[in-house]
Structures are given as structure tokens and as C-alpha cells.
Specification:
The chain is an alpha/beta fold. Helices cover 57% and strands 11% of the residues.
Length: 526
């Protein structure tokens, strides 16, 4: 409903206007009546009406003066003047200062209704327009960074980069001359990070990258797609390769994330920035064998492009022989030497997958020939192959094949009555000796025993019926019980002795293990 204020020094005229039409039916609420311009101005401040009907001639101050005072403060209020034929000079002046319209006396019902409907429609249309403007404004503000990055991305994709550079001025970006270089950061998560939500990890990575480059205003970022961030170096005085290596180190330190950064060559012409970007893409494509821990520049792989690894069939026949003879170390060495060779080549992921797949197929073939069932959780061959395809670097591929190989060897030895090398026993002994270390982890023990953490986790649970963490917690709780019975140590001191930093967590685990709190246990021992 629109709020209406009626102003006239004659009460009968006001009543006539009120009764002349059904205001509510036409979208109005009469919020006030005033008999002088001064009273009307005060009510306007108080009631904030949308529309004012006012007489031209009133004592002391005219309707024209009222209109001038109101419109100087409230430009969106619509004012309609009511005048006689001899007062048109006032109306003319009112139109000049911005009144909406006028009505001549005597007031006709049809005229009043027509003006009321017209001003209503104008106000509603203006409000709709303003609402749309505010919506678009809010949407722009909320998506400012996304829009800004889309414009930055066009520096490496547009045919008219000069125009793109001009448009960037809207975002307070002015490019420096003579330094145009692109890089691409591509990241993948380690074993622990994979358990977290991908979106949260993406936000975390972006926050780290933003913070790292916050002191470099001429280094521009854009998110090409999930897990890949484009970087444009427009800052002539920096060593961009060193900076990228520092970013990789920061991602690893802060989030445990391994990232690959491909860096294109540096050019002096803005139009060559797209070339630098394509070079960065080539680094990630053909530099698949490069170590994840360092950034790679295009010039490092350019001279070796076309050097593809040549794998002799004899290598795979030798691998097959080692497997059938349960020669684990020799089979592992064959795999490791192959991947060492691959790291020295310039290859794509597809090439690496084909070679890794050959080893997997050899394992499948040997398992079928020897009737060995070895996959965990009853995985079929399709699932195993899919797992290989999901891997993002040579190190993980090598580990994946070695895990598969270990599973095969374990099953082979069991079926042939051969004693399994007791990696689990060694792990158990290590746990019992180092349980006091609060930083003790499965990964640490796996490093000590030179085995893959996933493999150790699997065989440990198979033998003990409990996970590594459950086993370690049982050891610590048993040790805690002994300390509580044989010493006068406080609860938090006992927790510290057994490698648990948080006394509250210790109390929780103790009660869960023994069904009694520490204090209850001590009282029952008295």
C-alpha cells in the first residue's frame, strides 16, 4: 500500500478528496491530513508518505513552497497540486521544480482516480526498477571476485587482450609493461586430506595462495577449474620460479598438500601471454614425471619433448617370473627401477598409466595362473584398475603397484605354506617400545619398517582384529593402569607418561576401556 498525505486549509475539501474514490481498493493508505504547509512538512518528516496531494493557495505558505521544501529532502515523494484556473503560474513553477502532476478545481472523481492510478503505477514501476538494480548490485558485489578473475583469465584466452587490459582498470588493475608470464598450480591431496571435503580443501588452498601473493600486487590469480589455479606474473622485479617453489613449500607446510606448478616462459609483449600460458599447460601435461615438490619451467622440458620411454617385453617377463617364484624383493626392484627411469623422461599421464597398467595386468595374469585370490575387500579387477586411473603422480602409481604386489605375495605364501614375514610383529614391538611418543603414527612406523602405510594398516588389522590406533590405545591404557596402581602420579601426569597430551581425552579413553573413571578405579583399589 502507498502512503498518502492530503494537505488543504479547507477541511471540507480534504473530506471530499477522501470520499471521492476508494483509496484502499486502489492501493493507498491515507496516513495523514494537514491544514497548513508547516504542519504538512512536519508530517512528511514523521510519516514518510509516498504521495502528497496539496492545495496551491494556503495561509502563510503556499503549496508551491511546501513542494519545494519536501522535494529538497525527499526526491522520491510524488506531489500532486490542486489549483484553480487563476493559479496556473504556481502550477507551472511546481512542474519546473519536479512535482508529478496537478488537478484543477473543482475536483472531478474521474480525474482524481486517473491521476491516483497513474502515480501509483509510476511508483510501483520505479520500485521494481530499484529492487532489480539493488539485486544486481548485490549480486555484483557478492560475485565481484569471480567476475574479476574471469576478466583476468581472458588475458590468456582472448583474441583482443589490449581491450581486456583496458577493462581491467575497472578492477583497479593496471598492467606493467615488458613482463608477461603465466603459470598453473595443480594440486592433489595426500592420504589424510582425501578424507576431508573437497570444497573445504579447495577454499583452504585458495586462502593460502591468496595470502602468499598478498604482497605482490602485480601477480594475478584466477581459478581455471577445480584443483587448478592460474597465475599471471606481471611483476618484473621478482624471481618467479623461486616464488612458485616457495608457494609449493608453504602449501605442503600449512596444509600437507603436494602441488605441481608448470611455468611458461617470460615475454615482453602482452599478446604473447597466451603462449606462456600454453607452455605452462604443456609442462603439466608432459612433465608428469617431474617431482611434485618443485616447480618446473617450460625450458626444462622443451629440449626433451618427444623422448618417450621404451619398455622392453623382457622386463615384464622377468617381473612375471619373480612373482611366480615369490621373489618379492626382485619383483619390487623391477617396478622401482622402471619408475626411476620414468622420472627421468618427459611423459604424459596417459603414457605413465599405460606402463603401470602393464604391471597390473601381469599381476592379474599371474594370480589367475597360480589360482591366488589376493585383493582386499573382495575388489574386482575393474575397481583396481579404476583406482590406478585416479592416481595423480608417479610416486603414487609406484606405491599402488607395490601394494598390489605385496597382497599377491602374501596370498601366494599363505597358499603355499610359507611363513609370512612378520611385519606386523615388528610393528607391534615398535609400538610397545615407543608408545610414550605422543607423535607416534602409522606412517612413522611404516617408514621405519620400509613398507607402505596402507599395506601395513591392512595386514595389521587382519592379524590383530583391530586398527593401529585401537591397538596403540590399548597398550597405553594398560600402561596407565599399572602407573595408577604402582605410583602416586596424578591423572594428567600419567597421561603425559603414556603419550597422551590431553588429560580430558585420557580420562575419556580410560573410562571407555575399563568402565570406570580414573578416580573410581583408584577408590576401588583401596
Amino acid at each position: 500500500m502507498l502512503k498518502l498525505l492530503i494537505v488543504d486549509d479547507e477541511p471540507l475539501v480534504i473530506e471530499l478528496i477522501i470520499r471521492c474514490i476508494d483509496w484502499e481498493e486502489n492501493g493507498y493508505e491515507i496516513v495523514g491530513k494537514a491544514f497548513t504547509a508547516e504542519e504538512a512538512e512536519a508530517l512528511t518528516d514523521e510519516l514518510q508518505p509516498d504521495v502528497i496531494f496539496t492545495d496551491v493557495r494556503m495561509p502563510e505558505h503556499t503549496g508551491l513552497e511546501l513542494a519545494r521544501a519536501v522535494l529538497s529532502k525527499y526526491t522520491d515523494i510524488k506531489i500532486i497540486m490542486i489549483s484553480g484556473y487563476d493559479e496556473f503560474s504556481y502550477v507551472n513553477e511546481g512542474l519546473k521544480i519536479g512535482i508529478f502532476d496537478y488537478i484543477l478545481k473543482p475536483i472531478a472523481e474521474e480525474t482524481l482516480l486517473e491521476v491516483a492510478c497513474r502515480v501509483r503505477d509510476v511508483i510501483l514501476k520505479e520500485r521494481e526498477h530499484n529492487d532489480e538494480f539493488e539485486r544486481l548490485k548485490l549480486e555484483f558485489e557478492q560475485n565481484f571476485e569471480v567476475i574479476r578473475e574471469k576478466h583476468i583469465e581472458r588475458l590468456v584466452t582472448s583474441q583482443n587482450v589490449e581491450l581486456v587490459a583496458e577493462n581491467l582498470a575497472f578492477f583497479d588493475i593496471k598492467l606493467n609493461e615488458g613482463c608477461y608470464q603465466a603459470a598453473i598450480l595443480e594440486y592433489s591431496e595426500d592420504e589424510e586430506v582425501k578424507e576431508k571435503k573437497d570444497l573445504l580443501q579447495s577454499i583452504q588452498v585458495r586462502d593460502i595462495v591468496n595470502a602468499f601473493f598478498s604482497g605482490y600486487p602485480a601477480i594475478l590469480l584466477f581459478e581455471k577449474h577445480f584443483q587448478r589455479i592460474g597465475i599471471i606474473n606481471n611483476q618484473p622485479e621478482v624471481d618467479f620460479a623461486v616464488l612458485c617453489s616457495g608457494l609449493q613449500a608453504e602449501l605442503c607446510k600449512s596444509a600437507g598438500i603436494c602441488a605441481r606448478i608448470g611455468i611458461g616462459e617470460r615475454y615482453k609483449d602482452l599478446r604473447q601471454l597466451s603462449i606462456s600460458y600454453r607452455e605452462a599447460c604443456d609442462v603439466l601435461t608432459y612433465g608428469f614425471s617431474a617431482e611434485m615438490e618443485r616447480s618446473i619451467q617450460y625450458r626444462e622440458i622443451f629440449s626433451r619433448l618427444g623422448e618417450n620411454p621404451v619398455m622392453q617385453d623382457g622386463i615384464f617377463r622377468k617381473f612375471e617370473y619373480y612373482m611366480k617364484q615369490a621373489m618379492l624383493e626382485e619383483a619390487k626392484e623391477t617396478v622401482c627401477s622402471t619408475f626411476t627411469m620414468l622420472r627421468e623422461c618427459v611423459i604424459t599421464k596417459e603414457q605413465a598409466v599405460r606402463i603401470a597398467m602393464r604391471y597390473v595386468m601381469e599381476i592379474f595374469s599371474a594370480a589367475e595362473e597360480l589360482r591366488v585370490s589376493y585383493t582386499e575387500d573382495e575388489k574386482d579387477e575393474t575397481e583396481i584398475i579404476y583406482g590406478l586411473l585416479c592416481l595423480s603422480n608417479l610416486k603414487d602409481m609406484q606405491g599402488y603397484i607395490c601394494d598390489l604386489l605385496l597382497s599377491f605375495m602374501d596370498a601366494f605364501k599363505k597358499q603355499n605354506g610359507t611363513k609370512n614375514v612378520s611385519v606386523v610383529q615388528a610393528a607391534e614391538a615398535y609400538l610397545k617400545e615407543h608408545y610414550q611418543d605422543p607423535e607416534l603414527s602409522l606412517a612413522q612406523i611404516a617408514r621405519e619398517l620400509y613398507v607402505n602405510p596402507n599395506y601395513l594398516s591392512r595386514i595389521f588389522k587382519e592379524k590383530n582384529g583391530k586398527s593401529f590406533r585401537e591397538y596403540l590405545l590399548d597398550i597405553r591404557m594398560e600402561k596407565a593402569l599399572v602407573l595408577l596402581r604402582q605410583t602416586t602420579l596424578k591423572s594428567y601426569e600419567v597421561a603425559e607418561k603414556i603419550g597422551i597430551k590431553d588429560p580430558g581425552y585420557f580420562s575419556f579413553c580410560f573410562k571407555k576401556k575399563f568402565g570406570k573413571s580414573v578416580q573410581s578405579m583408584l577408590r576401588s583399589e583401596l
